[in-house]
Structures
1.
Amino acid sequence: MIRRQDTIGKMHMPAQTNLFRCLTDNYGVLLHDPESGATTAIDAPDAGPIEAALANTGWRLTEILVTHHHGDHTAGIAALKQHHKCRVVAPRNEAQRIANVDETVGEGDKVRVGALEGRVIDTPGHTAGHISYFFPAEKLAFVGDTLFSIGCGRVIEGNPEMMWHSLLKLRNLPDDTRFYCGHEYTQANIRFANTIEPNNKALAARADEVAGLLAAGRPTIPATIGAEKAANPFLRADNAEVAQSLGLSAVPAWKVFAEIRERKNRF
Ligand SMILES: [Zn+2]
C-alpha cells in the first residue's frame, strides 16, 4: 500500500477505487476516501450495478461526477440521487442536457470527495462540453469517452482539432497517472492500432498484456498515461514516423489525428 504524506507529516489513508462492468461494454467506477467515508461514482451508466458495487464495498454514495451527457453515462443518476441524496456534479457546458444536477463545473474548477481533491479538465470533442476529472495527489484521472486504452472516443459534437487538443491535455498528465475510461474497447482498439503502427513494440507488449487480462476475465483498465503515450496511435499523431506512414508529412498534428480517427470510423 502506498501512503502519501502531507507537509506536517500526517499519514493519509490512500484513496480506493472499485471498477465494475455496466450495460454492454461500459465501466462504472467508484472512488472512495476512507478517512471521511465519502464515495463518488464517476458517471452513472445504470443504477443497478452501482448499487451492487456500493453493497459489496459497504461504501455510502455521496457524489456523482458526470463526464458528459450521453445516456450510457447518465441513465442511473435519478434513481441513485433519490436513494442516496448524493450531490450531482456535471459539466457546465452541457448541464442543461443532464437532469438532477446540483453543481456545474468547468476547466480548472476543484471538486472534492471527502479529503480528496480533483481538478476539472475541459476535454470537448466527443461531446461539446465533455470534461475529465484529475486527482493529482492520487494520480488518478477519469476521462469518460475522451481517451480509451489504445483508442479515443468518436468525435460526435466537436471537431478533430478540438479532440486532438483535449487528448493533448490528458497526454500531458504525469506518466504515472492511472486513467479510467468509460468503455472496455481495448482489444478492438489494438486490432485497429496494428494497422497504423504494426512495428510498435510498446503496442505489441500491450496486446500481449491485454490478451492475458481478458483471458483471466479481468479489466484492461486502468492504464497509465506513460504506457498509453507509447502505444496509443491517437496520442501519437505528432510522431513524425506515424505521420509519414500515413503520407501526411508537413501537416498539423490535428490533421494526422483526423486521418487516424477517420480510418478508425471505417475500420
Ligand atoms: Zn459518450
2.
Amino acid sequence: MTALFTPGATHPLIATASLLAFGLLGGCGGSGDDSSGPQQVTAAQACAALNGKTLAGATVIAAAVAASGATPTYCKVFGNIAPSLNFEMRLPQTWNGKLHYGGGGGYNGVIPGLNLPALNMGYATISSDSGHGGGNVFDASFALNNPTAAQLFGSLSTPTVMSSATELLKTAYGVTPSRSYFEGCSNGGREALMNVQRYPNLFDGVIARAPAYNWVGLLGHFNRTAKAVAATGTSFTLAKTQLLAKAVRDACDGLDGIVDGVVSNQAACTPAVFNPATLRCAGGTDTGNTCLSDAQLAVVTSWTTDASFSGNSTFRNAAWSLSGNEDSPSAWPLWVTGNGTLTNALQFLFQDTTVKNYLARDPAANSLTYSPFDQNQNALYALAALNDATNTDIRPFQNSGGKLLLWHGANDSALSSNATIEYYNNVRTSVGGQANADAFTRLYIAPGVDHCAGGPGADNADLLSALDAWVEKGAAPANLTAQKLDAAGATQFSRPLCVHPKYPRYTGPANDANAAKLAANYTCS
Ligand SMILES: [Ca+2]
C-alpha cells in the first residue's frame, strides 16, 4: 500500500478495503422475502439473470469469473447509474446471504478493488467510484462546477448504489441481503461515518477505519503544515525525519515494556519525556543532520498542535502525537515532507486541490499563499455540508440496531488517530455516556501502524468477523488479535488489538525474540 499516482493503482487512500482482512457490508436491507434463504444459484446463473438488464436505474453487464486460489467462482457485475455513477459487484457462487460495501479513498474517481477477504468468506461485495471518473484520487476538480458530483462524493452515492445493489441481489438470488455491512478507510472511513450519521437504517454494521470525518478541519491542518514545510525549502530530508523519529524512540520505545521499535504506550510519551526542542540547532539555523532548525521545528509544532478554524466548533483537527515511526516510508516521507520535495507529499496534494476547487474556487489558486484558510466562510460551510461527518449523536443508528467499529493506526501520518479518539469521546457524551456507547461502539488503536495499513506494527485484523458476530449473535467484541503478515500471507508476529484506551504491554520473558512475536506475551494495559 505504497503511494501510487496512477489511475486505479493501489494507494492508501484508494483501495484500502481490498487489501486488508476486514470489510464492511451494509444494509438492514430487509429480509421480508427471504424466509427460505437465498436460492442456490451458480455464478453463471446469477450473471444470466443480470446481464444486459436495467435494474433500479442501473444498467448492468455481468460475466462469471472462475475460481482462483482462495477466491470462489463469482459473477462479476459492472453497473452504471446514468450519467456517471459506476459500481462493481461480485456475487459468489455460494452466497452467505450478506452484503459487504467497501468504501473509497481520497477524492475517489475510481472503483476500488473489491474486498477479497469478504468475497472469500461468501459475502457479495460492492464498491463504487462515488459518481465521477478521472482516476485521480488527488483531484477534486469534479466538484468545482458540478454540484451533483460533489453531492454524490459527499454522501449521496452510497444510498443510491445500495438501492440498485439490493435490486440486483434480489434478481440474482431471489432475496435481498439478510445483513449489510459497510467498511472503509480514510475517505472510506468518512463514508462509513456518513452512513451512520445520515442513513441510520442503511447498514446493520459499520467499520470506520482511519476516518477522514472532519474534512474542513483536517484539510485546514494539512494546509497549515504544508505552509510550514514550504518554509523549510528543500531541507526537510529523510535524514531529518529519521533524526526526529529516532529521538522519540530513544525516549519512549521502552515505556510499553519492550524495545521493539514501536511506541505502543503513546500516551506516556509526553513533552516532559521527549521535547523536540532538545533537537534544536545552535542558533536556530540548519547546521546539518544532527539537529533541526527553527523552521523545521515549526513543522513539528504544526504537527503536534490542534488546528481550529472560524465558523463552527467542528472546524478543527486534533493534533498528531509523535510516534517514533515518522520515518516509516509511508509516514512522513509520503504524507508530510516528500523528503524535501513538498509537492510530492500527499497532504500537500490533498489540501491544494481542495483550496482550488472548493474554497478559492479557482483552478489557478496557490494553496501555499491562500491565507487564512478560513477566509471564505461560505465555501467552508458548503464544504462541511457536503463532506463533514462530524455529528456525534448517533443514537438513531443505535436505535436501528446498528453496531460501529472504529479503528485507527497510531502511526498514521495522513490522519490523526487523536481525531478519531476525539470523535469517539464526543460520541460517548452525545449518546449518554460510556455504558451506552459501549453497547454499540468500539474503538481500537493499532500501535505502529501507518495510514490504513503498513508500518512496523501489526496491521492486519479481522474486524469484519468481529462485527458480524456482534450483529448476528450479540457477541460484543473485546480485545482482538492483530497480525503482521509477510508478502506470502504468513504471520511474522502478532499483538493484541486493544480496546481503547488500553495498549499492548509486554509481559513475556526478557530478551526473548520469539516470545516477543506472540500476542499471548502481551497484556492490554
Ligand atoms: Ca515498544
